[in-house]
Write a structure and sequence with these properties.
Layout lengths: L9 E10 L2 E8 L2 E9 L7 H15 L1 H4 L6 E3 L7 H12 L3 H6 L8 E3 L12 E8 L4 H9 L5 E9 L5 H10 L3 E7 L2 H4 L12 H15 L2 E6 L10 E3 L2 E3 L7 H15 L4 E4 L6 H8 L32 H10 L5 H7 L12 H7 L15 H12 L8 H8 L7 H5 L14
Helix pairs in contact: 1-8, 1-9, 3-9, 5-10, 11-14
Length: 432
C-alpha cells in the first residue's frame, strides 16, 4: 500500500547566517529542521548591507525546496524583512513557482498564507556601471548571451555547482568563453535529498534561486548588472489547471523577472539591474546565433542526464533520449548541416530516431500534452523548425519527420520567429 504524504500545518524560517563567503539558511516544518549552505568563491564583505538584504530574498526563495516536503498551510517568515514587492514575489514563487509540483502531487496551494516579516530598509550599494555578472549554464542560451553582450562591459560568469562536484560539459564550455568566473557551491540538506514516503517531491523555481545568488555575488564584487538568458517562450505555460497556468519554466518567465527585479529594487534601489538579455528573442533566433560559434560545438551538452545532482548518475555523452536532447536537435537542425548535427550527437541526432516520434509530436503540439515539463521552446517554435527541416534535401529520407510535418498547419513562419518577440528590459549599455 502506497503511503501518501500528509500536509503540515506550519513552515517556519528560523534565520539566515551571512558570514565570510558563506550563506546558511535554517528552516523548520512541523518538527523537521533543514539547513541549506551556499559557499561562494569570494568574500561577501563589500556592500555588506545590500548583500545581507538580497541574501534574505534568496533565503526566502530557497526555503521552497524544503517547504515542498510537507506543503504546509501556513508559512511564517519570522523576523526576516519583507516589503510589499518581496511579499508579492514570494507568494508568486510559492503558488506559480511550485505550480508543477502542486499539479503533479494533486495539491491546491491557493490556501497557503504567508505570515510575519518586518519593514525593508533600502540600501545604497556602490557599483561599477560597466561591470556585470552572467549566470552561465553552458547551454545555447547562455553562450549566445555571453557572446552578444557589449564588448565594453566587464563581464564575469557566475557558475553554481552542487556539493557533489562541477558539471564537466558546463566547465568545458565556460573555458571556451575565456572569461573569469565567480562561483557558488550549493549544499542541500540531506533530509531533502534522501527519499522518504513522508515527503512530497517535485520541481522548484531553481532559476529564481540562482538569479538571487548571482545578485548577491554581483553586489559583493561591485557589479551593477545580472544578465540572465531566458528567452521569450519561457513564459508559455505547459498546461492549465482550471484557470491556473502551470509553467515548468515559471522562474524563467517575464512575469517572474519583473517580480524579482521589483523585489530587488525595493531593497537596493535602481543601481543594480537584473534582466534577461534574450527576453525578446525566440529559441530559433537563439539557435541560429549559437550555430555561428563553431568553437563551442565540441564542448556544450544540453542533456538533462548530464546535469543530475550526483556524479555517478550523470551521462558522459548526449543520451539522445530525453526531451531536452530532442529539442536541441530540433532547433539547431534548420541552421546546421545534418551530418554536422549527427556528429554532434556522436552518431545520429535524436531527430533520426523513429522511436522518438511520439516525443517529437508532443514538442510540435500534436501530442496529448501541450508542452513537456522541460526547459524547451513552445510548440509553434518547434513546429516551424520541423517544417524547415523537412524542406531540406538532407532529410528527404526521414519519413517519420515528413509524416509529422504533414499534420501541421501553421500561421507563423521562421521569419516571424527570427524577429524580436515582445518587450525587453535590457539596458542599452548591455547591447553591442
Amino acid at each position: 500500500m502506497t503511503t501518501v504524504p500528509q500536509r503540515a500545518e506550519l513552515f517556519r524560517y528560523l534565520g539566515l547566517d551571512v558570514h565570510g563567503s558563506t550563506l546558511r539558511g535554517h528552516y523548520e516544518c512541523d518538527g523537521d529542521s533543514f539547513t541549506e549552505t551556499i559557499e561562494f568563491s569570494h568574500e561577501l564583505a563589500h556592500n555588506a548591507e545590500a548583500v545581507q538584504s538580497v541574501a534574505e530574498l534568496w533565503y526566502l526563495t530557497a526555503g521552497l525546496s524544503y517547504y515542498k516536503a510537507r506543503a504546509a498551510h501556513v508559512v511564517d517568515v519570522g523576523s526576516i524583512p519583507l516589503g510589499a514587492a518581496g511579499r508579492e514575489f514570494l507568494a508568486a514563487a510559492l503558488y506559480d513557482g511550485l505550480g508543477e509540483f502542486a499539479f503533479r502531487n494533486d495539491l491546491d496551494l491557493s490556501d497557503v498564507t504567508i505570515e510575519g516579516g518586518r519593514d525593508v530598509s533600502r540600501t545604497q550599494p556602490q557599483l561599477d556601471p560597466n561591470a556585470v555578472l552572467t549566470p552561465f549554464g553552458g547551454g545555447i542560451d547562455s553562450v549566445v548571451t555571453v557572446r552578444a553582450l557589449s564588448a565594453q562591459l566587464n563581464n564575469h560568469l557566475f557558475i553554481v555547482s552542487p556539493s557533489s562536484g562541477t558539471f564537466a560539459p558546463l566547465e568545458a564550455t565556460a573555458t571556451v568563453m575565456e572569461l573569469e568566473s565567480q562561483r557558488a557551491t550549493r549544499t542541500l540538506d540531506p533530509r531533502i535529498t534522501t527519499p522518504t514516503s513522508r515527503y512530497f517531491n517535485g520541481h522548484v523555481p531553481v532559476t529564481a534561486m540562482v538569479t538571487l545568488l548571482a545578485t548577491v555575488s554581483a553586489l559583493a564584487t561591485g557589479r551593477s548588472g545580472v544578465v540572465m538568458s531566458n528567452e521569450h517562450s519561457a513564459s508559455v505555460p505547459n498546461v492549465m489547471r482550471g484557470s491556473h497556468a502551470i509553467n515548468h519554466q515559471w522562474s524563467k518567465s517575464a512575469h517572474a523577472e519583473r517580480l524579482l527585479a521589483d523585489a530587488i529594487t525595493e531593497r537596493c534601489g535602481p543601481s543594480i539591474t537584473v534582466a534577461s538579455f534574450l527576453r525578446d528573442r525566440s529559441e530559433l533566433w537563439v539557435a541560429r546565433e549559437f550555430t555561428r560559434h563553431h568553437d563551442v560545438l565540441p564542448t556544450f551538452r544540453s542533456c538533462n542526464r548530464a546535469f543530475r545532482q550526483e556524479q555517478v548518475d550523470r551521462a558522459v555523452n548526449w543520451c539522445g533520449e530525453c526531451d531536452k536532447c530532442l529539442f536541441i536537435a530540433l532547433v539547431l537542425a534548420p541552421f546546421m548541416d545534418s551530418s554536422q548535427l549527427d556528429a554532434l550527437f556522436e552518431g545520429a541526432s535524436p531527430l533520426r530516431r523513429v522511436d522518438r516520434r511520439d516525443a517529437l509530436r508532443t514538442l510540435v503540439g500534436l501530442g496529448t500534452e501541450k508542452k513537456p515539463f522541460e526547459c524547451v521552446g513552445d510548440p509553434d517554435e518547434c513546429a516551424v523548425a520541423l517544417k524547415e527541416i523537412v524542406a531540406r534535401p538532407d532529410y528527404a529520407n526521414d519519413n517519420h519527420l515528413h509524416a509529422i510535418a504533414a499534420e501541421l498547419s501553421l500561421d507563423i513562419t521562421l521569419a516571424d520567429l527570427l524577429a524580436p518577440q515582445g518587450v525587453s528590459r535590457v539596458p542599452a549599455s548591455w547591447i553591442s
